[in-house]
Every structure is written in structure tokens, then in C-alpha cells.
Design brief:
alpha+beta, Rossmann fold, Elongation Factor Tu (Ef-tu), domain 3, 5 domains, eight-stranded antiparallel beta sheet, six-stranded mixed beta sheet, 33% strand, translation elongation factor activity, hydrolase, T_Tr_GTP-bd_dom
Length: 596
């Protein structure tokens, strides 16, 4: 295919706005998928994607389109996730694209992730094609959705907004024509030395690491000696090819093409997304600028349930290949043994990783209470200690002050939702910076703790605004906060994995809720098990987990005093013995912490 007839594009949208359905329709209309192979959500092939109805991992597919001008075009669709936690995956896909389709649901209008993804595309200087989906729905509000798109960017006033139904295929042919006419052909010279960007990868048990690449310059051939420019490691590719959407081997890839390279490497750490691949014998001089390092928002411990630490380590290494936003490092817990402290982009990201570990790798895990990263200053020498593990928080007597991270948050909402949204943000310890009226919309700017954003804030915002709030956040700074560590003792023994950090104002209520939940999820023993919550050495909540069977000494049966005293002595002895016994904590115990 001539380079002038190649188009590399992505579809960006808020979750549930029909991105996967439009992708399916494009593949059907270009005969990429034959009718007998048709199925819904073709690019969402993982179980977790189908169960949650969201795209988690970006996929790529080459489509051949016969345009109205009589020419054939190669349309490379690079899929993108839609959930707010996966913005980093969107940025990876857009770095390999030359244009985007901005898809908006006519029944819901412009929403939070619509704005966030639009801003990523704008920052990459990509042409944007606005498309309104679900116009055939009886609840469609086409005119108001158009107005919201115009308010997003005045430049859309000079464009025709395409109105489609991805489900029925109505006007999808106009989208294909717009891709051909408005997305530019890729730049690059196939006579220059090879320069290819790795924008994604995955691990195959037989083939090793398979890198997804965009060829910027030069040509790539099978069985070619290649070099990674980050560490100058050399390998010979075993196979190259294209996505149809399955892997299809090909003899060569040229400047502008999107394809894959079977590296044959077995070490999951050998390939880094954002790296540049070049020819070993005729290397390019400068690498392609990579991505900004991902900033984890939520941290949690992941431990193997059945002591298969090596299996968990290998699973995380393979997962990090196609999810470069997952960070992890080894740690050891006194109660759970060897595991990993992992960084995630949000709570939904954590949930997806947990489900993929079980479904893709068969590894059952225990996940501890998530938290954010704090700056702790020690009194003695004003030393700064960065803490992302609650059990590593220094003793309160040694601490001078604690700083927690804040985001600058911009929320745009209809005027009738202002009071409810402001109440929600105030409950989340937000500090109002500015309020700006924009016709029927109000823009609120807040300084908001990341710890509050990470735990279900986005879903609550959608609920109180009926889905009409747009949400944009960027890191602001660390600020001093009254933060305390809540330690949990089970049977008079501290359990470091249940420790969590919170603001002092929330400590009492959270501790009371937690110990009462633990009463019903903690494994029962033959004798009552006390569960206590401590803050700064003071017990602020306590509950006794009832025993498996009734205490005969207080059962009401008529026994003489000496027999009751003898029974109590035996119970006390057993109680003291059991205080040192190991109590295995199932995942539901840690879920109780997540639940509050």
C-alpha cells in the first residue's frame, strides 16, 4: 500500500458511548470480519472486558477501505480504553495515531472522559473528527449534544458533526470517508534507517514478547537484526506481521505501517513501551521521544494466597507488558509473607488487575487496603520519608508533620446540580478555588486530596450529576494534613496488612465500621477473638469475634462453682496459647476494609 493511502487513527470516547460498537461496524463495512465470524465487541477479547463492558487493553486492526474516489486505503484502527483509570493507555495509542474520532453519545452528551481524551488528542496536535452516536435512540438529545461539542472547542463550528448509529450502521460510511479526507497520511521516508516506536506489547507462551510497533522511517523485514535504543540490546525478529485483528505474518512493513514484531525474548523486562527499535547494521541516530513516566495514584499490597510467590511474580511481569501503567516491587509482610507493593491508576484499575491475575494466569491473590503516597517529615533531623505502605508509617511520636498529595480538579456541571456536587466535594475535603458561570453550565475548580478521588469519587460524581458532570484532574502539590495511621490487632497481635491511613476526622467512624465488619468476616476460633483498632497507641474501637461454640461457663447450665472455675482456667490457658497462634486471613477480611 502506498504511504499516501495509509491512515492511522483512533476512536476516543467516554465509557459506554459506543466505541466498541463503532469499531465492530467499521470492520464489518470494510470486510475485515466476514459475516460468519461476526460477534459483538470483537476487539474486547478479554473476559474482564466483556464482563465489565469496557475496553481495558488497546487493540489494533488493519482495515482495507474502497473509498468514493475509487482508491483503496489502509485504515489502521488503534483501539483505546474509555474508563477514566486508563488515560495512560489512551495516550499510548494516540502517540501512534495521526488523527482521532471523538465519539459522543447523543443520550448522555459530553462527559468526563470525553473531555479528558479530547485534551490528550489536542496535546498531540491530532486532527479530531466529531461524531454523535445513537441518534436513532428515542432519548437522543442531538441539538444539546451538538452544543456541548461546540463548547468543547470553537474549531468544531467549522466542521460538520457526523450523526450516526453505530449499532445499525447508519452514516458509518460518512465516518470512513471523513477518515480518508481529514486524517493525514503518515510522514516518514522508507529510504531512511529503520525507526519504529513500541506502543504496546504482550507475552506469548510460545513466541515470547510480541511488540506492537508504528514504523516512522525505513523498512522492517522478517529475520532482521534489530536493536533496542534504550539499552542497545540486540535481537533477531522471528516474525513480523499485521493485525487483522488476529496476528497475520507479513514479509515487510514500511514507513507509516502499524504491525507487530515477534522478538523471541522470554524476559518480560526486556521490552519497554515507548522504546525505539532500529536496524542493528544501519541504525538511526535519534530515538523517537517516548512517553512520560506513569504516575501511580493508588498503592496496594498483592500477596499469593497459596504461597506460589514465583507464579505471582511471573504473572505480574507478563501483565506489565501490555499494561505499562502497572508498577510493582517486592515487599514482605509479617502476616502475609512475600508479595508485592503495586501502583495503580485507580480503584477500577486495581480491580481489573486482580481479575486478570485470576482469569488469565490462575493465580489467587490477597489484596490489602489501598492507599496513596504520603510525605512524612521526621522530627529529629527533618528527614523526608515517602510512605506508600501504611505498615511502614513511622511511630507517631517521631513524626513532625505529614503531607498528602492534592489534585487541581475542574468539574463542569449543569447549574441545577451545583449544590449536590459542592456538597460531595466538601465531604471529600475539597477546597474551592474558583466558580465560573458559562451559560447553563458552571465550572468549579477545587483543590482535592487524591486519596478522596481514588475511592469511588468519580462514580459518586456521576450519580449526583446524573452523568452530566465533566471531570478533569491534574497533580497540584503535597499539602500538610492531619493524617493518622489506624493499626488493627487481632487476638492481641498486630496485623500489618490491615493497617490503613486516613484523615483524623474520619478515623473514629472508619475504625468503628471496620471492627464491626470484621466481626462477621473474621474466621472464628474455639474462643472469642478480640479485634481492636489503635490510633497513636489509643484504642478507639473494639469488638469480640464470637467463638465457634457456646462458652459452657456462661451457658446458664446449673453446674457447681468449682467446675465452672476449672473450665474458666482451662479456657484462659487455651486463650493465652491461641494468642500466639497464626490466624489465616481470607480475602473477604481485606474486602471489608475496601468496603468502608
Amino acid at each position: 500500500m502506498k504511504q499516501s493511502n495509509i491512515r492511522n487513527f483512533s476512536i476516543i470516547a467516554h465509557i459506554d458511548h459506543g466505541k466498541s460498537t463503532l469499531s465492530d461496524q467499521i470492520m464489518k463495512m470494510t470486510d475485515t470480519i466476514k459475516p460468519r465470524h461476526e460477534e459483538t465487541q470483537i476487539l474486547d477479547d478479554m473476559n474482564v472486558e466483556k464482563e465489565h463492558g469496557v475496553t481495558v487493553r488497546s487493540r489494533t486492526v488493519r482495515n482495507l477501505y474502497h473509498a468514493n474516489d475509487g482508491q483503496s486505503y489502509e485504515l489502521n484502527l488503534i483501539d483505546t480504553p474509555g474508563h477514566v483509570d486508563f488515560s495512560y493507555e489512551v495516550s499510548k495509542s494516540l502517540s501512534a495515531s495521526d488523527g482521532v474520532i471523538l465519539l459522543v453519545d447523543a443520550t448522555q452528551g459530553v462527559q468526563a472522559q470525553t473531555v479528558a481524551n479530547y485534551q490528550i488528542a489536542k496535546a498531540n496536535n491530532l486532527p479530531i473528527i466529531p461524531v454523535i452516536n445513537k441518534v436513532d435512540n428515542q432519548n437522543a438529545q442531538i441539538e444539546s449534544t451538538e452544543q456541548q461539542i461546540y463548547e468543547l472547542d470553537d474549531e468544531f463550528l467549522t466542521q460538520d458533526i457526523i450523526k450516526i448509529s453505530a449499532k445499525t450502521g447508519m452514516n458509518v460510511d460518512k465516518v470512513l470517508e471523513a477518515i480518508v479526507n481529514e486524517v493525514p497520511a503518515p510522514n516518514g521516508d522508507e529510504n531512511n534507517p529503520l525507526k519504529a516506536l513500541i506502543f504496546d506489547s504482550h507475552y506469548d507462551s510460545y513466541k515470547g514478547i510480541i511488540a506492537y510497533v508504528r514504523i516512522y522511517d525505513g523498512k522492517l523485514f522478517a529475520n532482521q537484526q534489530l536493536e533496542l535504543m534504550s539499552d542497545h540490546s540486540v535481537f533477531e525478529n522471528n516474525e513480523i506481521g499485521i493485525f487483522t485483528p488476529d496476528l497475520k505474518p507479513d514479509r515487510s512493513l514500511s514507513a507509516g505501517d502499524i504491525g507487530y514484531i515477534v522478538t523471541g525474548m522470554k524476559d518480560p523486562k526486556a521490552i519497554r513501551v515507548g522504546d525505539t527499535i532500529t536496524d542493528k547494521n544501519n541504525p538511526t541516530k535519534t530515538p523517537i521521544p517516548g512517553y512520560k513516566p506513569v504516575q501511580s495514584v493508588v498503592f496496594a499490597g498483592i500477596y499469593p494466597q497459596n504461597s506460589d510467590f514465583d507464579d505471582l511474580k511471573m504473572a505480574l511481569e507478563k501483565l506489565s507488558l501490555n499494561d505499562s501503567s502497572l508498577n510493582y516491587q517486592e515487599e514482605t509482610s509479617e502476616s502475609l509473607g512475600q508479595g508485592f507493593r503495586c501502583g495503580f491508576l485507580g480503584m477500577f484499575h486495581l480491580q481489573i488487575i486482580r481479575e486478570r491475575l485470576i482469569s488469565d494466569f490462575g493465580v489467587s491473590v490477597i489484596i490489602t487496603n489501598p492507599n496513596v503516597k504520603y510525605h512524612v517529615y521526621i522530627k529529629k533531623d527533618n528527614e523526608l520519608k515517602v510512605v506508600n505502605n501504611p505498615s511502614k508509617m513511622p511511630d507517631f511520636a517521631l513524626i513532625d508533620l505529614i503531607e498528602e498529595p492534592f489534585d487541581k480538579v475542574t468539574i463542569t456541571i449543569p447549574s441545577d446540580s451545583v449544590n449536590k456536587v459542592m456538597d460531595l466535594v466538601n465531604q471529600s475535603r475539597g477546597i474551592l478555588i474558583n466558580m465560573d458561570n458559562q451559560g447553563k453550565l458552571v465550572e468549579l475548580s477545587y483543590n482535592l486530596p487524591i486519596s478522596e478521588i481514588a475511592y469511588n469519587f468519580f462514580n459518586k460524581l456521576k450519580s449526583v450529576s446524573h452523568g452530566y458532570a465533566t471531570f478533569d484532574a491534574e497533580f497540584n502539590d503535597y499539602e500538610v494534613s492531619d493524617i493518622v495511621k489506624i493499626s488493627i490487632d487481632v487476638n492481641y497481635a498486630p496485623v500489618d496488612a490491615l493497617t490503613f491511613i486516613t484523615h483524623r476526622n474520619n478515623a473514629d467512624s472508619l475504625a468503628q465500621n471496620l471492627v464491626h465488619k470484621l466481626k462477621y468476616v473474621m474466621p472464628k476460633q474455639l474462643y472469642p477473638i478480640p479485634v481492636q483498632a489503635f490510633v497513636e497507641g489509643r484504642v478507639i474501637a473494639r469488638i469480640d469475634v464470637p467463638p465457634l461454640r457456646k462458652n459452657a461457663a456462661v451457658s446458664g447450665d446449673k453446674k457447681n462453682v468449682s467446675k465452672k472455675q476449672a473450665l474458666l482456667r482451662r479456657q484462659n490457658i487455651n486463650k493465652r496459647k491461641s494468642a500466639n497462634a497464626n490466624i489465616t486471613l481470607p480475602q473477604k477480611v481485606f474486602d471489608a476494609v475496601l468496603g468502608i
